[in-house]
Design a protein that fits this description.
There is one protein chain. Helix 4 links the parallel strand 3 and strand 4. Helix 2 runs parallel beside helix 11. The chain is flat, with a radius of gyration of 48 Å. Strands 25, 26, 27, 28, 29, 30, 31 and 32 form an eight-stranded mixed beta sheet that branches. With about 1000 residues, it is of the alpha/beta class. It has 30 helices and 32 strands. The relative contact order is 0.04.
Length: about 1000
């Protein structure tokens, strides 16, 4: 037992019980770590109710007796009332009596075999009806009906397999074989050989997680593929799958096998991703190497669920916390976790398949599923469910006793073997009594348990038959009694039916009217002796007065007491006068007693005398608080509007249909340069058009508002009082009388002079920027960038690309000054730019002394190859106009290719429009492998141009990265070269002289 002590006093201790890795492998140790991870997270955020949670970690012993000792020590000696974990089904069942005796609570995160529901256990894993039954149902529908069952010899597998057997039978499946493997066995060749021989359609495995790894590995090594006989593993998780994928040579050998659980690591929910992020930090591994499973996430989440319940109950005591748990909801990695009254959780069923990458891929999901640990027996009527649950409990206990019997038989065999080993050297006769005594003792005890189990099973069967017969007799008797009662009631109802129908219809009509009146309908009676009664009052008293009808009837004096003190005298006087003169009255007053806010009501009442001399008032009291609020809001709105009108920074006006101002605020006078609104109205009253620099613009404004009813963002230039000119923006709308006649208009005026100046400056800058951008990128691409397309790319299946390079320019660059060098290149490339513009081609870029141009981009054209050919011929002619320092002409080496390319804009600074693709690379190779002064084209380009141009077949040449290629040299156009191509600007053709 490993107990970690905490010296701090402000702590609350909890027990964390788990099997060490030597017993159940690493899986249960990871469950412990997930629990400790949640505790650490809670402590980091301040603990619970001001206390730090101190986990007392216990390694569960492999013996049931030792498990109970450990649990009793935690609960009795250390006064710990909450245990987390618990390990196997056997260990859980062993400690439940201790939990019930000491009123302690176990939080059990494992999926288990069901047939159990203890108030001292919260089962936060899945029970069989939530995972096993839906998965088997899916399996029978999608994979086949011939089933082979294999499981670990223990309570879980034997109980779950009983459930699966019943389900297979119910759904007309076929159970071919059932196989149980002891905990100690790790070799499955015999079972795999049986599977091969029997050849089922599917294998269902309830082997524990660690055994599932060895089984699937040996299953794959035996050459059985999932497409032949798939295995549905009920307990294989992401943790074991990662180990299996690492151990097996070919992970694809296990692809296609299945598993089921309520959680898989691949879920994309926010809660799961946050859990995985925290788990990676806690376990100290990268996210791609992290492996977690359903039990780990339940162990993690249930600690937070306990925390929420403790904080809701404001105590750590078990009973209040247990009660508070039912109202808690925790968002878990697997989905919403909420404890139901049977101490289980609603959860999903997910069926997943192992993918070729060695990870689970979810195929099927059912969410959520209500927990039925008693397989639905708990949903029968109370009498039936109690009997059936007791029977199922006996069956579960019989399975446990049978399993223990087999364990003891194995222990007996082990004892005999140990005695034989210890008695080496002794004769057979000497050892026989000792062995016999030990064996007889073990066999006697085991036989007694076996007889007891058989007797219990017979008793269970007999009791179940008796209970069923008793239930049938009781149902029959109650059915007869019910039929007699119904007949008697029908006879009695027939006598009253007609009278009741008439009375009910009358009451319904009156109630419908009264209930739908928006207030309290009442009848009040003032008796001669001064008493007041109220024979009727409608049910809306709670809405008006804040009291029920019963309270209203019992305390009629409250009606007057609840009137606001300032209104009470007037109300009493109104009632008195109404009683004296039998005069209908209507009065408004405030109600304040039972509300934080004062309510306004209106009472309308009509009095009369009845035959007994009573004064009777029939009336209604209506809540008019909302109406009063509206009236107050209107008053405040008028004040606010006046304040806004007077203090607004925008000009506000009202005008007649002819444009003469009726009203104006100070801001409008200021805009027009007048000291007061009165001065403005006086000077422009008779001639409002004098404000506008263009009277036609003013008439256009009036015509638009008359025809359309409103004007938005109308801009105009106007004169100020000093005759200076400003820009204004007008927004106005028309006003109409009840007959729809246009009678006036009103609106807002803004001085936008500064904005117009800024817009003009901005426009000039935008024009500069656009011209600069057009020098860098094609116009079509610029338009796309302006429209907001950040990623600009396109594919063109048929364009022609030209690369040109100045021959021996590198040597020349070392012999001239930088200024002369740049001047030469600028003259040559400027001439080429003019040619490209004339031919409608797109210059892509220059690199050193190389020039790249494309035809058919960014705008597609059918004659792209011809245009590129014309460009190449013209470039060869133009280059002859440029001289070196030794008076020799420059020569070009040109390459052309046609094909598909991808074009787009790259970079975030210094944009460039570029091309990519094999066609570009080949065009570049045509240039680099070409002849000085020549134009080399590919076979593809040649086929497009051969009918219109003259070529010389160069033949096959070796091209780097492509091998041998058939190429052609473009000589000339068969038609006359277009004369406008050579009509270059003087600047473009001017020879560059240099003394080199």
């Amino acid at each position: 037992m490993n107990i970690e002590n905490n010296k701090r006093t402000e702590v609350i201790r909890i027990g964390v019980m788990h099997f060490p890795s030597t017993i159940l492998g690493t899986g249960d140790a990871l469950v412990k770590d997930a629990t400790l991870m949640a505790i650490a997270e809670i402590n980091q955020s301040g603990g619970i109710l001001g206390k730090i949670v101190e986990p007392i970690v216990v390694d569960i012993a492999s013996n049931d007796y030792n498990i109970t000792v450990q649990a009793r020590y935690l609960i009795s000696e250390l006064n710990i009332s909450n245990l987390f974990g618990g390990g196997s089904s056997s260990s859980r069942k062993s400690i439940i009596p201790i939990l019930e005796k000491h009123q302690a609570q176990l939080w059990y995160p494992y999926y288990y075999e069901g047939l159990e529901s203890s108030k001292n256990v919260f089962y936060t894993g899945a029970c069989p009806n939530q995972v096993v039954q839906p998965a088997v149902n899916w399996l029978l529908q999608n994979k086949g009906n011939g089933i082979y069952l294999i499981g670990t010899d223990g309570i879980y597998s034997r109980t779950v397999n009983k459930i699966i057997r019943a389900q297979i039978k119910q759904q007309n499946g076929l159970l071919l074989h059932e196989d149980y493997i002891s905990h100690e066995m790790c070799e499955y060749q015999d079972s795999i050989a049986k599977i091969k021989h029997i050849d089922p359609e599917v294998v269902i495995s309830t082997l524990n997680p660690e055994k599932s790894v060895a089984f699937l590995q040996q299953y794959a090594e035996a050459g059985i593929k999932a497409q032949d006989i798939p295995v549905l593993s009920m307990r294989l998780t992401d943790v074991e799958l990662r180990q299996l994928s690492q151990d097996i040579d070919d992970p694809s050998a296990i692809a296609g096998h299945l598993t089921c659980a309520n959680y898989f690591q691949s879920l994309e929910t926010f809660q799961n991703q946050d859990f995985l992020r925290k788990a990676a930090i806690w376990f100290g591994v990268d996210r791609d190497r992290l492996a977690v499973n359903a039990v780990m996430q339940s162990a993690y989440t249930q600690v937070f669920l306990w925390k929420q319940a403790v904080e809701a109950a404001q105590t750590f005591d078990v009973l209040p916390v247990r009660q508070a748990v039912y109202d808690q909801i925790c968002l878990a990695p697997a989905g919403k976790m909420k404890i139901t009254p049977n101490h289980h959780i609603d959860t999903a069923c997910r069926v997943a398949e192992i993918g070729v990458t060695g990870k689970f891929e979810i195929l099927y999901t059912v969410d959520p599923i209500k927990p039925l640990p008693w397989l639905g027996a708990e949903e029968l009527n109370p009498n039936q469910s109690t009997v059936v649950i007791e029977m199922l409990t006996e069956i579960a206990q019989s399975i446990q006793r049978g399993w223990k019997f087999e364990k003891e038989a194995q222990d007996l065999e082990f004892t005999i073997t140990r005695l034989l080993g210890r008695g080496q050297g002794k004769g057979r006769n000497q050892l026989a009594p000792e062995i016999t005594r030990a064996a007889m003792s073990k066999m006697f005890k085991a036989n007694q348990r076996l007889l007891k189990s058989q007797s219990d099973l017979l008793n269970v069967e007999g009791e179940l038959r008796d209970a069923n017969e008793l239930l049938e007799r009781r149902i029959e008797q109650r059915t007869l009694q019910l039929q007699k009662t119904i007949k008697q009631l029908q006879n009695e109802a027939a006598d009253r039916q007609q009278a009741e129908i008439l009375l009910r219809e009358s009451q319904q009509r009156f109630s419908a009217i009264a209930d739908n009146v928006p207030g309290v309908v009442y009848r009040a009676v003032l008796h001669p002796d001064g008493r007041v009664s109220m024979p009727y009052i409608s049910p809306r008293t709670l809405e008006i007065f804040g009291i029920s009808v019963e309270e209203f009837t019992e305390h009629l004096e409250w009606v007057f007491d609840m009137a606001h003190p300032e209104d009470r005298a007037a109300l009493n006087e109104m009632v008195r006068l109404s009683a004296e003169a039998l005069m209908t009255f209507e009065h408004e007053y405030r109600v304040s007693s039972f509300f934080k806010k004062v309510k306004w009501v209106r009472i309308i009442s009509q009095p009369h005398h009845n035959q007994h001399g009573d004064t009777v008032w029939d009336g209604v009291i209506i809540d008019i608080s909302h109406q009063k609020q509206i009236e107050e809001s209107l008053r405040q709105a008028e004040e606010k509007y006046r304040s806004i009108f007077e203090h607004a920074i925008e000009g506000i006006f009202q005008a007649q249909t002819d444009g003469c101002y009726i009203n104006a605020n100070p801001a409008l006078a200021y805009i027009y340069g007048y000291e007061t609104p009165t001065q403005l109205l006086t000077e422009v009253k008779t001639e409002p058009s004098r404000l506008f620099t263009e009277p036609k613009r003013y008439q256009e404004f009036l015509r638009q508002i008359e025809l359309e009813g409103s004007v938005a963002s109308f801009e105009a230039q106007v004169y100020k009082s000093d005759r200076s000119i400003i820009w204004i923006l007008i927004n106005a709308r028309a006003n109409y009388d009840e007959q729809g006649n246009f009678i006036s208009y009103e609106g807002l005026v803004q001085d936008i002079t500064e904005r117009k100046k800024a817009e003009q400056a901005l426009k000039a800058e935008q024009e500069k920027s656009e011209n600069l951008l057009l020098n860098i990128l094609p116009k079509e691409i610029v338009n796309q960038l302006k429209s907001g397309n950040n990623a600009i790319a396109s594919r063109s299946d048929n364009v022609s690309i030209l690369f040109a390079d100045i021959v021996d320019f590198t040597a020349l660059s070392t012999q001239v000054s930088p200024n002369d060098l740049v001047t030469m290149l600028n003259g040559i490339f400027s001439s080429f730019d003019i040619l490209a513009d004339q031919l409608g081609l797109e210059k892509i870029k220059t690199i050193g002394d190389a020039y790249m141009v494309v035809g058919g981009l960014p705008t597609a054209r059918s004659d792209h190859a011809e245009a590129i050919a014309e460009m190449a011929l013209a470039m060869q002619k133009v280059i002859s106009n440029f001289k070196r320092g030794d008076d020799t002409t420059f020569r070009l080496r040109i390459g052309i290719n046609t094909g598909p390319v991808v074009a787009g804009v790259i970079g975030i600074r210094k944009f460039i429009y570029d091309l990519w693709g094999d066609a570009v690379n080949v065009a570049s190779r045509m240039e680099s492998h070409g002849l000085a002064g020549g134009i080399q084209v590919t076979q593809t380009t040649y086929e497009l141009l051969k009918d219109k141009y003259s070529f010389w077949h160069r033949g096959k040449i070796f091209v780097k990265g492509r091998g041998e290629m058939d190429t052609y040299m473009l000589l000339d156009s068969k038609a006359q070269l277009r004369p406008d191509i050579l009509d270059l600007s003087k600047e473009g053709t001017q020879s560059v002289s240099s003394s080199v």
